[in-house]
Amino acid sequence: MDGFGYRAWLQPSKAQLGFIPRLKGAKDFAWEECAHGLEALFGRKPTNRGDYTITLETSPDPAPEAYTLRGGPEGLTVTGGCEKGLLYGVYGLLSRLCLGEPVETMNVREKPAVRHRVLNHWDNANGTVERGYAGASLFFKGGRIGYDLVRLKDYARLLASVGINEICVNNVNVYRDSAKLLTDEMLPDLARVAEVFRPFGIRLIIAVHFDSPVILGGLETADPADGAVARFWEESARRVYEYVPDLAGFLMKADSEFRSGPAALGRTQDEGANVIAKALAPFGGNIYWRCFIYNCAQDWRDTETDRPKAAYNEFHPLDGKFDDNVILQIKHGPSDFQVREPNSPLLGAMTQTHQGLEFQITQEYTGQQKDLYATAVQWEEILDTPVTDACMTRDLVGHEVTAIVAVSNTGADANWTGHLLAQANLYAFGRMAWNPAQTAEQLTRDWAALTFGRDPSLVETLTSMLLESRHVYEKYNAPLGLGWMVNISHHYGPSPEGYEYMKWGTYHRATHTHIGVDRTTHGTGYTAQYHNYVRDLYESKKTCPEKLLLFFHRLPYTYKLKNGQTLIQYIYDTHFEGVGDVKRFIKIWESLNEKIPQDAYDSVREKFDMQLANAREWRDVINNYFYRVTGVPDDKGRKIY
Length: 641
Ligand code: GCV
Description:
There is one protein chain. With 641 residues, the chain is of the alpha/beta class. It has helices at residues 29-42, 83-98, 149-161, 176-179, 187-197, 212-215, 227-243, 269-280, 310-315, 375-383, 393-396, 423-434, 440-452, 456-475, 532-539, 549-552, 567-591, 598-630, and strands at 21-24, 52-58, 67-71, 75-80, 107-110, 116-120, 140-141, 144-145, 166-168, 203-207, 249-252, 286-290, 326-331, 354-360, 386-388, 391-392, 401-407, 514-515, 555-556. Strands 6-9-10-11-12-13-14-17 form an eight-stranded parallel barrel. It has a five-stranded mixed beta sheet with strand order 1-2-4-3-5, with helices on one face. A two-stranded antiparallel sheet has the order 7-8. Helix 1 (29-42) packs parallel to helix 2. The chain is globular. The two termini are 47 Å apart. Bound molecules: 4-O-methyl-alpha-D-glucopyranuronic acid. 4-O-methyl-alpha-D-glucopyranuronic acid (GCV) is lined by residues 122, 130-131, 172-173, 253, 257, 292, 336, 364. 4-O-methyl-alpha-D-glucopyranuronic acid binds next to loops.
């Protein structure tokens, strides 16, 4: 494939290997990947005449995906807890070599923090990708499974190299065509996709339609309490596992955004999930059941209903009622992947239920792969958020949180992610899901070095720009956790009242004096869904993190922030600053011109032009809106249209 971006972080290394490799071990897939990697990354085909021996072996380990790398003067041994662990060990070794770690002193043990490290593709059977900003689907074409085999294999390698071990191939919004993934019509093709991913240790998931028993089974109802419905799911599971014996399971979006589900039939979410869980259990499959449930037909005049409360209200009372192979998939925030929102109060609130923490790599609300936005910075903040006085969100990982999931940002674009630098987000997701203790800074640094080479000033410059990018984007977006001031439907660019009079439960309720929703116990009561410690933190304006002030509180524009600035002036200042920061990013990128391959340089330079136009639009629309609403002038006298 052409173009620098195609190889992503598996670029040929600019560093020399420093030895001639000899490879020992069973000639299995890990061996092939090691040989392939040594040649592709360093131009060194292993040979029997080599002067440094890399031994590949497996040795049973309680954590089968774990691996060790033990180097010495004569050779290095990669030991995997099983074949999959060995493969991870090979990728671990190759990336360390690219990062310049001396092989003789390598002494590493790695094991993943969670069992399920999952990508969700929102790909439709017609080949489009919902919220996709990197071209067409990698899996579907014209209503059927359709792919480029070479590309798919390269994609599998990219994902496996950062530890991703499950992928859902189709959109959670399942339409009639992709519902057929449960049938003989599509399963033979799905089986072939599974064959591509299997050697890389990646199992497939399919998103299923709640009404499948009706749509595909010809039944009159999808009621989970109906015996015929249970039989339908059993038969479907049996059929699917005949074709794909190692399927990781099903994914379900039910009772959400006009999709059918158990609630619509007077049943509870556990009844809906368990009937499918029971069908999958004999085959070792899981059902990922999404918690993204809220009233999407709200009257904007209704101030009692508060969308962020919905998921907790629906699921928290059901803790302990889900079968063991149900994983509740919880979006990290209670709204919907906004640039700033608190963590979902469901996270850590259900001690008897497996939970999956859902992130979004695709930049739906965060710049759509036109604007630079390092998602890892946001994830780090999310993981560092307290659940109680003694527990952070990251402490849940590996306990209640048994899956880390993200909506993919990939597609058929030559560089996979549209914006070349958005590759950093896919890379960081895999590595962070493997080990949530790794910092955004380290991951970004590694990604920059693996992608562009180890020139220290290049790596430093790129890393600091990426780490700053989330905050820059936030500056010109909706202020202080307000969210939603975005153009409706496509979600790019500003529209301060775009969602204000809609049915989606997304209101800021600005008047000429105040803005925001009071979500404290004196208001909608949302804060009461948190553990007392966290509730108290958010309840008071004094202790609420300032970045979330307008998520939790209704405030006058004259409200003074900790630095003495008024709320309105903060809005003006940050929006002017955001545009200035993007201009600075452009200068920084231009300073790297000589060090970046031309096609890569040009493609990112183009994206920056789009980002600058977007930042200006946000600045002028948002500042103008607030000026018109409040009549308060900017105290620095800058131009507000
Ligand atoms: C797949 C948001 C997005 C939808 C998405 C939904 C979800 O509402 O805008 O495109 O649908 O989240 O996560 O299910």
